[in-house]
Structures are given as structure tokens and as C-alpha cells.
């Protein structure tokens, strides 16, 4: 492993350990978006490329896992209707990515990527407003 890759991993780990809960949520959104982008890149590989299916599958499973982590950490009791609605949205996103993976269709990935980006941007704006 190149020295810079090792340093990047150390920095990333330190970032996670020192991040606020709000920053962690933002990092999770960024991770989900990064994996959806990787899946979209894999869709552009030639159909006969055996790595295509593996890359799509891996990236979408990782995106789904992050969205499931976000969903499972919602406080439905304290969050009330807002948390319940967000839980339903995450469930929909996870199901659509699952469908995209089963059918190897890019369209649902593009759809969910836009929704997650909107959530991520709203969350980032909220963090900026609260810290200002």
C-alpha cells in the first residue's frame, strides 16, 4: 500500500472519531452517494465485462447498507412524524436500489441518487445554520 493511501486511511479514521453526530450523518450521505456514483460508472462497462455485475452489485449493496444504517438510527419516539416519514423514505430508497441491482437497471440509481443528494444538501445547510 502506498504511504499516501495509508495516511489517507488514518486521516479518515481520525475524522470519523472526532466528528459530531451531525457530521457523521453527512459523511454517511456522502458515502452512499459515492457508492451510487460507482454503480453508475459500472453500468457504463461493456455488458460482456464480467466485472460489471460484480461492481454494480458491490456498490449498490454498500449504498443500501449506509441507508439502512441511517434508517436504523432514527429515533422514532423523539423524532415523531418527521422521523417516521424519513424512515419510510429510506425504506423506499433501499427497495429501489435493490430493484436496480436485481434488474441491473441504472434508472432507479439515478432517481435515488438525486433524492439522497437533496437530503444531504439540506442536512449540510442545517449544519451550517446551526453552527453559525
What CATH architecture do you see? Answer: Up-down Bundle
Instruction: Compute the number of structural domains.
Output: 1
CATH H-level name... which superfamily?
Flagellar protein FliS
What do we call the CATH topology? Four Helix Bundle (Hemerythrin (Met), subunit A)
Task: Give me the strand/helix succession.
Answer: HHHHH
SS elements, strand count: 0
The percentage of residues in β strands lies in under 5%
Task: Write down the overall geometry.
Answer: globular
**The biggest beta sheet, please?**
none
Distance between the termini: 40 Å
Oligomer: single chain
State Rg: 16 Å
Estimate percent helicity. Answer: over 70%
Structural class: mainly alpha
- The low-pLDDT segments are none
CATH class: Mainly Alpha
Number of helices: 5
Average of pLDDT: 90
Give the helices and strands, then pairings.
Elements: H1 3-18, H2 21-43, H3 50-72, H4 76-103, H5 107-131
Helix pairs in contact: 2-3, 2-5, 3-4, 4-5
Amino acid at each position: 500500500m502506498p504511504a499516501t493511501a495509508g495516511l489517507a486511511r488514518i486521516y479518515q479514521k481520525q475524522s470519523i472519531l472526532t466528528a459530531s453526530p451531525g457530521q457523521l450523518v453527512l459523511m454517511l450521505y456522502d458515502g452512499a452517494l459515492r457508492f451510487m456514483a460507482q454503480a453508475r460508472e459500472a453500468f457504463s462497462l461493456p455488458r460482456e465485462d464480467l466485472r460489471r455485475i460484480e461492481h454494480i452489485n458491490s456498490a449498490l449493496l454498500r449504498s443500501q447498507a449506509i441507508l439502512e444504517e441511517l434508517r436504523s438510527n432514527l429515533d422514532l419516539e423523539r423524532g415523531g412524524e418527521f422521523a417516521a416519514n424519513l424512515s419510510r423514505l429510506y425504506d423506499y430508497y433501499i427497495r429501489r436500489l435493490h430493484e436496480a441491482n436485481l434488474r441491473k437497471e441504472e434508472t432507479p440509481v439515478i432517481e435515488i441518487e438525486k433524492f439522497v443528494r437533496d437530503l444531504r444538501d439540506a442536512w449540510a445547510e442545517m449544519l451550517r445554520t446551526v453552527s453559525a
